[in-house]
Amino acid sequence: MSHDSIDSILHEERLFPPAAPFAAKARIPSAAALAALREKAARDYEGFWADLARSELSWQKPFSRTLDSSDAPHFRWFEDGQLNVSFNCLDRQLAKRRDKAAIIFEGEKGDIRELTYGELHETVCRLANGLKSLGIRRGDRVVIYMPMVPEAVIAMQACARIGAVHSVVFGGFSAESLKDRIEDAGARLLITADGGYRGGKVVELKQAADKALDHGCPTIEKMLVLKRTGHSINWRKERDLWWDDLIKQQSADCAPEWVDSEHPLFLLYTSGSTGKPKGIQHSSAGYLLNAIVTMQWVFDIRDDDIFWCTADVGWVTGHTYVAYGPLATGATVLMYEGAPTVPDPGRFWDMCQRHKTTIFYTAPTAIRALMKFGEDIPGRYDLSSLRLLGTVGEPINPEAWMWYHRVIGRENCPVVDTWWQTETGAHMIAPIPGAVPTKPGSCTQPLPGIEAGIVDEKGNDINEPDKGGYLVIKKPWPSMLRTIWGDDERYRQTYWKKFGGRFYLAGDSARRDKDGYFWIMGRIDDVLNVSGHRLGTMEVESALVAHPRVAEAAVVGRPDDIKGEAIFAFVVLRGARPPGGVDESLTNELRAWVAEQIGPIAKPDDIRFSDNLPKTRSGKIMRRLLRSIARGEAITQDTSTLENEGILRQLRGEE
Ligand code: WTA
Fold it and tell me: Atom 23 of ligand 1 has which residue's CA nearest to it?
């Protein structure tokens, strides 16, 4: 985000009260109703969550203890209860909604499929039985590497049904990234597809999966392959099997495996500032509870909604608001396989019109990208079915918020800017659309039962309006991460150490305005947010230095109009620096290399070659200096300690 936009945010005075027709029907219809909820949570925090857990989840064995903090920072919620997440999503809908559409799917090429709750339940049961026939048991890890098709959700639900722990790896990640995640999780089974369609191309998932398994992954026993494209692929008879062949002989009944509340439902890998991506471990009951209540509070979900969250199931948003939350609330969820600009930039709006989408949830980067194509594109479509719009993943600039509100929402739809993280499992700070007036660019206020705060270096509350600080969560909440898979020490260090175990450290900085509204300012660590995707600068640096021609690399973010943040890499080569610091073919080679190491989303936008990197006497790379250079800003840092001040000119691209 540029300084101009930060400045305009600081002076944002526009306030959008809940539209009267919306509020009239909303589940939480007024500020007073919301205040009552908050008051209840403040009076009896545990009782507040316990009542919700009893009313919103179906238990096989009811719990008697709500929260156990005796082993903090490991918190256990509803510990002695037992349930099954897939039962809560599917079985309990059958009585009322057997013939209601659970998933409406549209492929990039326009193929449409609808699965009712009855059909979804049946297929999930067949696959669950299939997984059992392969020897997959409670607690086993299953990696899912699939296109955005209903079978991805079916695979997740089938794992949940038998108590297996899934770990979805985004289909845009490379073979190398897939391998790292499989190995870290120690997965026994990989579920993939012969390919998927995205951006007018075929994503070669099976090919990448083969490559990952050729280079490691000794714990994988079988690879289950969904036929999506029908293109020819390599096949290893003793290891690979077709999805259809596995499920066709299976029974459509599969009793759910009852698990403890704390049983891990899934791992999801995400980037941190150091080291390899970390496997965020989520629970069963607590996770599902927040998924459900946020569907109700923030999305105000109703039985006749067509709910469309555009996130891929490879990200947490696709877990909570595609695979679990909508189903657990009996909603109809729209799923789209492809890119927003195929065949043209009207695709999203065309789909909203054709499927009569009522709730649309997407990332600011998509809004900004589509905004560039002008208003007449959405203007061609009937968007009158929409009643609520949402955003997630990165700060939304007021200009994009206003466009979304005006051009897509025709000033009739509340816009909910939802702040949360892979770690939090569900929305934490977000407007309740019938009760909280919104301001463009602010995620407004913490949800009931969520105690967010902004503190200084010592952990003291910052009460002064508009003064930035660390965003923290002060009390445990049901859908919080439980640990980092295989690295509990890193869990303690990353999230709890800074404030001595008192607060959860989110890793974002934020400020609160005079009305108590939260404004997220960005990450405090070396994590980039590129098009709403989290990437560690170190991951990109490690990928670069793995190239034979690269001696050293430093990666920083710079503001980008569409992606939010773009990746700027400073690279020192082995051997001579190219004349003028420019070598287009090597730049392209390095970009392709990073795509292969991590995935296309990690490709540096700019690469600049220099003889050296700016370092302090102790050898630390001066990242702030590089950030200023990448942004084209004046350098305010002290550069007198630089070994070679001449490299400044090289870093700036001046020689
Ligand atoms: C950022 C995505 C501003 C933030 C659900 C957070 C946001 C990181 C918002 C988590 C928002 C997410 N406004 N920033 N509404 N939502 N972020 O784990 O920096 O992929 O820490 O989870 O995205 O990204 P993650």
Answer: 393
How far is the centre of ligand 1, averaged over its atoms, from the C-alpha of 424 (Å)? Answer: 10
**Strands annotated E in 574-634:** 606-609
| CA 631 / ligand 1 centre spacing (Å) | 22
Query: Amino acid letter at 591?
Result: R
CA of 393 relative to ligand 1 center, distance in Å: 4
pLDDT in tens, 371-400: 999 999 999 999 999 999 999 999 999 999
Q: Please give the torsion angle defined by the CA atoms of residues 518, 524, 529 and 532, in that order, rounded to the nearest 10 degrees.
A: -30
**Distance from residue 392's CA to the centre of ligand 1 (Å):** 7
Predicted pLDDT at 9: 56
Nearest to 278 by CA among 80, 86, 485: 485
Distance CA 27, CA 646 (A): 63
Closest CA to 607 of 620, 633, 626, 622: 626
607 vs 583: CA distance, rounded Å: 9
- C-alpha to C-alpha distance for 204 and 45, rounded to whole angstroms: 48
Q: Does the CA dihedral 28-30-31-33 come out positive or negative?
A: negative
Centre of ligand 1 from the C-alpha of residue 496, in Å: 19
Contact in structure between 264 and 163 (CB atoms under 8 Å): no
Cβ 440 under 6 angstroms from ligand 1: no
Residue 419 C-alpha to ligand 1 middle, in angstroms?
6
Nearest C-alpha to atom 15 of ligand 1 is from which residue? Answer: 419
Give me the count of residues in the chain: 655
CA distances from 251 to 84, 123, 197, 224, 259 (A): 19, 9, 31, 18, 22
What tokens were used for 471? 């965003």
198 forms beta bridges with 201
- Which of 88, 51, 28 has its CA nearest to residue 436? 28
Question: Quick one: CA dihedral 522, 526, 527, 529, positive or negative?
Answer: positive
pLDDT score for 4? 40
Question: pLDDT tens-digit profile of 320-375?
Answer: 999 999 999 999 999 999 999 999 999 999 999 999 999 999 999 999 999 999 99
Q: How far does the centroid of ligand 1 lie from the alpha carbon of residue 79, in Å?
A: 29
Kindly report the three-state secondary structure assignment for every residue of 233-278. CCCCCCCEEEHHHHHHCCCCCCCCCCEECCCCCEEEEECCCCCCCE
Ligand 1 atom with the smallest distance to the CA of 315 is 20
Q: Can you give the pLDDT at residue 122?
A: 98
Q: Is 421 in the pocket of ligand 1 (CB under 6 A)?
A: yes
DSSP 404: I
Only one residue has tokens 């509990």, namely: 488
Closest approach atom of ligand 1 to CA 417:
15
CA distance 547 to 597: 10
Atom of ligand 1 nearest to the CA of 430: 15
Which residues in the chain come in under a pLDDT of 50?
A: 1-8
* 624 SS3 class: helix
The C-alpha atoms of residue 138 and residue 161 are separated, in whole angstroms, by 9
Q: Which of 401, 481, 520 to mutate to test the pocket of ligand 1 (most atoms within 8 A of CB)?
A: 520
Protein residue with its CA nearest to atom 3 in ligand 1 = 395
Token readout for 558 is 């710079």
